[in-house]
Amino acid sequence: MSDFANDIEKLVVEDNERDHPSSSTGLGGFADLVRVLGTSTKTTDKLEALVQYFSEADDRDKVWVIALFSGRKPKRAVNTTQLITWCVEVAGLPGWLFGESYHTVGDLAETISLLLPETVTTNRSVETKPLHFYIDTFRHIEKQDETIKKEFILDSWKQMNQNERFVFNKLITGAFRIGVSQKMMVNSLAKFTSLEASVIAHRISGNWDPSTTTFAELLNESPTITDYSKPYPFYLAYALDEDPETLGDTAEWQVEWKWDGIRGQMIKRNNALFVWSRGEELMTDKFPEYHSLKDVLPDGTVLDGEIIPSIDKKPLPFALLQTRIGRKNVTKKNLQETPITFFAYDLLEYNHEDWRNRPLTERRKQLEILIEPLTTPTIILSPVVEFNKWDELTALRKTSREMGAEGFMIKRKSSIYQVGRKTGDWWKWKIEPLVIDCVMIYAEKGSGRRSNLYTAYTFAVRDGEKLVPFTRAYSGLTDKEFTEVDSFVKRNAIEKFGPVRTVKPELVFEIAFEGIAASNRHKSGVALRFPRINRWRKDKKADEINTLEDLKKMLEVYGK
Questions:
Q1: May I ask the CATH class of domain 3-173?
Q2: What keywords does the record list, in alphabetical order (predicted)?
């Protein structure tokens, strides 16, 4: 027996020796949870399923479920080509038929689970293996020979039902997009543990490793900080859809520009600096400009703000920030052309004390004392917008794009810094988006619950007699409208290029977007910021759409 086989046998023996309450707590139990979360439309059902799972599962499985549903995933041990090759071999299918099936289903993990022969064995021992057993094994076989990987994958497939295979394949591919929000997971853990949701949200944030962190350690309510990089959960605002006068007395509100950057937290603890994005990505090394701030910020400080490129305290377009995000090596030229700044607008921790429950006015005052004396251009105090009447603010809002902003943030002066999206105290009052009419020319099937419908579209504008593609969009229509467009695509497809269908250029849509920038990577010469379908223009014909010249004029006015 090989060393690897011995190691796997040890994992199996060790796992069998542990007391597992029932088979429902193994991979089968996790697969059932994923099925409920992915198919149920009721929040209460999803919440109940999560609570039930946390009450029955192995503690190490609970940690991995929290990790998987919050964006952490194990490193891939098997590549896509290997999975497809083995599936075709086991199922006895020609490669072209797998390709057609994949394009129809739209999800690799689901396609494989559907094509594999039905399980006929009565051996259900694998069903009782916990989730962490498979993840541990993936990590163990990562650098092993392909034959060893194949043996483990095929043996696992043989002993699983279709639902378990689907989840097993998802674990391998790392493509978990399940219909559960961070807030729902936090609420289920709060219900299961009786801890405050805010405590749980903080505990599961940051740079923890699910392979070495126990469930008890993860949810320990002790105020002692061992992970000095750990950020606080972000406080999010709701969109203000009504007239701001409905908010009452202007004296009760603080207004700031809503900057178009990456929301982030800057943390100085234990004489080290950490910068987190709202998506919980540690971005310190991506922006070397920030390293000098370690020497000017006091220890025990956490700032909330915006990561933005700027020159002379004026924000630069988001498109320039994108050129920096994807770079592993930042050159001197990059630093000069796109200097990154931190626009600080809130103080969450000061002198190692949590300040989130103090009113905004108190946090702002201390933030000003902290930031204003600093002479470095790398950190800026985001200004408060002065106004006396709501109609003054309405007029100022029209200058947002000139300021490099998306509108205003309106915050109640007495508000504490809460967790997640809450209504009442913080509002975002964004400017109206830019819009343009165009025609759909390509369509692809979506993913998840929309994997059987054409819901991903490419749009074009006119350039003389030609149609020039300029953007893609995946959202903005109702389920009924998506079904109507899907039917049109199936009836009017002209050509087929893999999963892409060329369709008759007849359906007109209004595309909304937040910004526009020049781009040499796109045939149109422009790139849009947050494009989405604003409405289906059934009142317009294809010859009435906007032109490439219209796009270029928008670039001149709104691009930078």
A1: mainly alpha
A2: ATP-binding, Cell cycle, Cell division, DNA damage, DNA recombination, DNA repair, DNA replication, Ligase, Magnesium, Metal-binding, Nucleotide-binding
pLDDT tens-digit series, residues 158-169:
989 999 999 999
Residue 68 region by backbone torsions, left for phi larger than 0, else alpha for psi between -120 and 50, else beta: alpha
In the chain, CATH 2.40.50.140 sits at: 434-558
* Cα–Cα distance measured from residue 410 to residue 245, given in angstroms and rounded to the nearest whole number: 12
* Residue 371 main-chain phi, psi, to 5 deg: -90, -40
* Rounded Cα–Cα distance for residues 493 and 457 (Å): 13
| pTM, to two decimals | 0.75
Query: Rounded to an integer, what distance in angstroms lies between the CA atom of residue 442 and that of residue 458?
Result: 5
Greatest pairwise CA separation for the chain in angstroms: 80
d(CA 434, CA 513): 5
* Cα atoms in the 13 Å half-sphere on the side-chain side of 36: 18
Distance CA 450, CA 477 (A): 13
Nearest to 269 by CA among 360, 367, 348, 204: 348
Alpha carbon distance 232, 301 (integer Å) = 12
Residue 140, both tokens: 């163990």
Q: How far apart are CA 148 and CA 156, in angstroms?
A: 12
DSSP string, 46-100: HHHHHHHHHHHS-HHHHHHHHHHHTT--PPPSS-HHHHHHHHHHHHT--HHHHHH
Distance CA 393, CA 413 (A): 17
Q: Could you read off the pLDDT of 48-98 as tens digits, one per residue?
A: 999 999 999 999 999 999 988 887 777 788 899 999 999 999 999 998 999
Instruction: List beta partners, residue 408.
Output: 257, 429
Q: Looking at the domain covering 434-558, what would its CATH class be?
A: mainly beta
Using CB atoms within 10 A of its CB, is residue 557 exposed (0-12), middle (13-18) or buried (19+)?
exposed
- β-pair partners for 471: 459
In a 13 Å sphere around the CA of 32, the CA atoms on its Cβ side amount to 17
> How close are the terminal C-alpha atoms of the chain, in Å?
65
Alpha-carbon span 302 to 269, nearest angstrom = 8
Angstrom distance (rounded) from CA 270 to CA 518: 43
Burial of 296 (0-12, 13-18, 19+ CB in 10 A): middle
CA–CA separation, 544 vs 450, rounded Å?
30
Q: CATH for 235-425?
A: 3.30.470.30
Q: What is the per-residue pLDDT across 209-239, written as a single tens digit (0 to 9) for each?
A: 888 888 988 887 554 556 788 899 999 999 9
Instruction: Find residue 23's DSSP bridge partners.
Output: none
Select from 151, 37, 447, 392 the least CA-distant residue to 250.
392
Residue ranges of the chain assigned to CATH 3.30.470.30: 235-425
